[in-house]
Amino acid sequence: MGRKKSHSSAKSKHPTQPKKISSVKRNEIAIQCEKLFRLCSEPAYATQSWENYLEITAVLEKVKRLEEMKISTTKRSTAIEQFMKWLKDDGANVSGASIAEFPGYDLGLKAERDLSCNDLVLEIPGKLIFSTETAAPELMTIQNDPLIQHMPQVALAIALLIEKHKDNSKWKPYLNILPTTYSTVLYMTTNDMIELKGSPTLEAALNHCKNITRQYSYFNQMFQSNNNNQVSELLRDTFTYEEYCWAASTVMTRQNIIPSKNGTQMIHALIPMWDMCNHEEGMITTDFNTNSDTCECYVKRAFKAGEQIFINYGTRTNCEFFVHSGFVYPDNEHDGFKLRLGISKSDPLYNDRVALLDKLGFTSATTSFLLRNGSEPISDQMLAFLRVFSMRKIELDHWLESDKVFDLKHRDCALDTIVEENVRKFMQTRLKLLIANYPTTLKEDLALLNTTITPNRRMILQLRISEKKILAGALEYVEQWIKA
């Protein structure tokens, strides 16, 4: 749901139709795409993911050079007037807001009058909402393709490219108001990504880049080899990695879920004008009125005329915002640090521990938890896992036979002192190692915030700071626990 700020300002530019890539270059691109597909399809363990990413990036650089095109452009800001007219002509109610530039946010929505909490500010009719039901009917010719069939976000990205390269598309006013580049991880360099060293977000970012590259190589081969569908005919000469990154990032940063026309399922969609809103924590105040087939947006708090209108994108960690939306929210009360815990198969008590975990409802001997901000960083689920991890044979036997096994999730559960001490000492050691895994300290990162750095580096720095604050808070909690 929602969007992020792009690298481009209100004076950024949107592309016109690019020139076609020559057949000679297309042949070479096809060879490179075969390599990409193979590299992206091979399983890579966490320890190998960085090397795998570097291999993929090296091939991608060759592809980008081959696909490089000179594109004539016009200013994005010139598209605002036509976009607003398009909305109003098709029945959208946007009288309470306008599009304006805000420092640090690129474009956003500006209140045109004083608004009180729960005032209706936008009504966007279903016919103006971009989805595979309202746009790109050509997709029907490849509807049986597994990616189109089972990955709705991918289908929506291809639909965007179809409408972008069609002559006289009804969606042009909307497409022209969209950013042309984003601050998602797809646009980051290896020098940017290496700044994530020590962060659990690095693995998520690398996996995401790998998945998008695999999708690109898959569709590139499909469009070049398949002559029997409208999508291939339309995109064969214009499909590039840059184009697919743009489409995928547009979907990731702006998508929402709405009911399908027949009401039988929820579908992914882009909601023009509403998706110009930037994120702020608070109530979620957007709804879809099935009776009127309209997206209705109510303001979550009072806004004065001229102020930027914010909406809540939902409950997400900064890792999720960073990877999928291209921003970090410094005061994110829903933030968390992903911590993976597991039982080693070489543990002589492995079978007993797994049996007890199963009794507690865990489906795997390796599980990821979120360390949280606040006074209770360790969840009840994580505490139960740690207790099972730390038990001796005698405690395992007792709890495997007990009908009060779920007491293990209660903080005041009566356990042998040794078990509780082991839990605390393990967490203390683990947290110290996680903090030491970063190449910089929290103090150093806070100092770097006051220096001149690129937007990507600043965002990565904000992410590292938010993660380190969570770890520091959790370590303080555990050390106080040990003293108690």
Question: Could you please describe the fold and organization of this structure?
Answer:
- Helix 1 packs antiparallel against helix 2, helix 1 packs across helix 8 (201-225) and helix 15 runs antiparallel to helix 17 (455-483).
- The protein has 2 domains: 13-74 and 128-325, set domain protein methyltransferase, domain 1; 336-483, Rubisco LSMT, substrate-binding domain (set domain protein methyltransferase, domain 2, Alpha-Beta Complex).
- The chain is globular, with a radius of gyration of 25 Å.
- The protein starts with 12 loop residues before the first strand and ends with a helix.
- It has 17 helices and 13 strands.
- The model is unreliable at 1-16 (pLDDT under 50).
- It has helices spanning 23-41, 49-67, 80-89, 146-150, 152-165, 172-177, 190-193, 201-225, 230-235, 241-254, 318-325, 350-359, 380-390, 393-401, 417-436, 442-448, 455-483, and strands at 13-15, 73-75, 97-102, 106-111, 120-125, 255-259, 266-270, 278-279, 286-289, 294-298, 308-311, 336-342, 366-372.
- With 484 residues, it is of the alpha+beta class.
- The strands form 5 sheets. The chain has a 4-stranded mixed β-sheet, with no helix packed on it. Strands 5-10-9 form a 3-stranded antiparallel β-sheet, with no helix packed on it. Strands 1-2 form a two-stranded antiparallel ribbon.
